Amino acid sequence: MSLDIDQLALHQLIKRDEQNLELVLRDTLLEPAGVVVDMMAELHRVYSAKSKAYGLFSPESELAVALQNCRKGEDDFLAFSRAATGRLRDELGKYPFADGGIVLFCQYRYLAVEYLLVAVLNNLSSMRVNEQLDLSTTHYLDINHADIVARIDLTEWETNPGSKRYLTFLKGRVGRKVSDFFMDFLGASEGLDTKAQNRGLLQAVEDYAAQGELDKGERQNVRQQVYTYCNEQLQSGEEIALSALAGEIPVLGEQNFQSFAETQGYELEETFPADRSTLKQLTKFAGSGGGLTISFDAMLLGERIFWDPATDTLTIKGTPPNLRDQLQRRTSGGN
Predict the structure, then answer these.
(1) Cβ partners under 8 Å of residue 326, min gap 6
(2) Between β-strands 240-241 and 113-121, what pairing exists: parallel, antiparallel or unpaired?
């Protein structure tokens, strides 16, 4: 992995009681060698593999101003990280769910792009067996489950200030988003809406196939071609490019897909990240609720699976063998 650490600082927030978070600040940066490099490489790998939201700094962001001063050489990285951790402590104190953790600031380069990664990591305890087969307690950073992480693409931020995607972060899934306090600390707001871009792509594909007057099988072939390309981009960590996608599907009518999407008002970016859950809708129907979970291949609709919108009823012809076996055993038992 071509990851070069420029500067890395660690600090700590310790929750002493319901109202107070104690601040523990390092006086020096960590040397970028050995276990430090291994830890950062693992954090980069884990974060890069996760689904992320995109954002940008607000004009009043204190962190952005402090980071700019640091980049200009008006403040050193350690001082920047110490002051930022203090602001994070103040922001966390506003929330009843606030917990402590290890606060990490790392400026590094990966594949010619410069980043600043900021994270709050849990410091957990576990058991280990030594060479004498004695048990002892060990502490470790829970990198695999890190969910309070943001990364700023410094290269993009400084060369393209109008961008809406130079900052990425992880979003919480339940209740008030855990990421909310982190976004307030960063002074950032959401930028590029990845799910909206992918939903727009799906709608554009459907409309493109419809205006091409394709039959059912031909439409499904187009959906499959789109899914194959997008999934390959997702697997390789690359973004969807409209120009490349247009080369994967047939020209229908007088325009290729890229021209169609650009002239019909879908507001798609030239490139944007793939969203796994949205793209699955190209090849599958799925839904759950009220104790019912259903998923099936899109090609089965109208052949083995029929939907009556008037009664909101699905009719399934031919159930999977394992489901059929369960149904037979349950009904034969009279229950």
Answers:
(1) none
(2) unpaired
